[in-house]
Specification:
The protein is mainly alpha-helical. It has one domain: Cytochrome c-like domain (Cytochrome Bc1 Complex, Chain D, domain 2), CATH 1.10.760.10. Helix content is 54%, strand content 3%. The chain is built from 6 helices and 2 strands; from the N terminus they run ααααβαβα. Strands 1-2 form a two-stranded antiparallel sheet. It is globular. Bound molecules: heme C. The site of heme C (HEC) has 27 residues, from helix 4, strand 1 and strand 2.
């Protein structure tokens, strides 16, 4: 048993490796369900910024959750022009329309997950 566990840890599939992947998968799944995936993915630019880069920008900032939930529910405009330059990405739209398909609870759920994405 001990030998097996050591082997699994060495292969990087015990705990940390697996859970980081799970968060990304959960974000992709909710994004699809909530109608975000037409414009967002975890790691690539679709029309808007990738969720992992949003996490990198907001992780650890005060009011990160409130700010992002507000943007999802009310829309967001031109905020990412300068940030896109900072992260060297090219986003394809200057604004996100208010997402009427989600309520506050759903917006909070996906924001919590986005902010949990591994950003290293
Ligand atoms: C029609 C395309 C589109 C859809 C659909 C869309 N987004 Fe966006 N999203 C964008 C764009 C473009 C931006 C950058 C806006 C800006 O520059 O202010 C953005 C920005 C964001 C941000 C960062 C806001 C901030 O304050 O910095 C978050 C978080 C986000 N989107 C989450 C979501 C979620 C969750 C959904 C689904 C419920 C969603 N988006 C659906 C295009 C979209």
């Amino acid at each position: 048993m001990r030998k097996l566990l050591t082997g699994l840890a060495a292969a990087g599939i015990v705990f940390s490796g697996a859970s980081a992947g799970d968060v990304a998968q959960q974000v992709e799944k909710l994004a699809k369900e909530y109608g975000c995936s037409g414009c967002h993915a975890v790691d690539k630019v679709v029309a808007g910024p990738p969720f992992r880069i949003i996490a990198r920008e907001y992780k650890g900032k005060p009011n990160a959750k409130e700010t992002l939930v507000k943007s999802i529910l009310g829309g967001s405009m031109m905020k990412w022009q300068a940030k896109a330059r900072k992260y060297k990405i090219k986003i394809k739209m200057a604004y996100m329309p208010a997402q009427h398909g989600v309520n506050k609870e759903k917006a909070e759920k996906i924001v919590d997950l986005i902010l949990k994405l591994d950003t290293k």
